[in-house]
Amino acid sequence: MVGQLDAASHLVILLAKKGLRYDTPWMRRTLEGRGLTEEQMQAALERYSYFQKHCIKVLESDRALFDWASKQTYIALGNMMTGAAMLGIDSCPIEGMDYDAVNELLASAGLFDPEEFGVSVAVTFGYRAREIAPKSRRPIEDLVTWA
């Protein structure tokens, strides 16, 4: 992570919520923020319950639940990187880090409660200092099947 950090003008660290279960006050507050009626909220909670229990089975362990919550942060990550690219700003996602050390550093600085959140992924942003050679990519035909 050091190479990107030395050259980047901005670093964003995305956190994932721990214990993001369908039956928690956090989930209820999230749905309330959407302006749902009580009936709509109950229906949404039932869908989340079914989804978490039967479709992705994340309630089997805290780790599985956190991994699912972390996957949700990649939606924001992709949108941030695409938006930056549209503005001509380069970005680099970062996963290869010592998560325990980064969690400890940020929590000790009072930036988040490690009982509630954990580091999911990081991304750097900035303008390139020099042009880089195009990367070798596999042909799209090798990666996508059109039906």
Structure characterization notes:
The protein has 147 residues and is of the alpha+beta class. The chain has six helices and three strands; from the N terminus they run αβαααβαβα. Strands 1-3-2 form a three-stranded antiparallel β-sheet, with helices on both faces. It is globular and about 55 Å long.
Strand order of the largest sheet: 1-3-2
Helix-strand sequence:
HEHHHEHEH
Q: What is the first-to-last residue Cα distance?
A: 39 Å
Rg calc: 19 Å
Q: Could you describe the largest sheet, including whether it forms a barrel?
A: 3 strands, antiparallel
* Discrete helix count: 6
Envelope shape: globular
Q: Based on helices, strands and strand pairing, what is the structural class?
A: alpha+beta
Annotation, overall tally of beta strands: 3
Low-pLDDT windows of residues: none
Q: Specify the oligomeric state.
A: single chain
The pLDDT mean sits at: 93
Percent helix range: 40-55%
Query: How much beta, percentage-wise?
Result: 15-25%
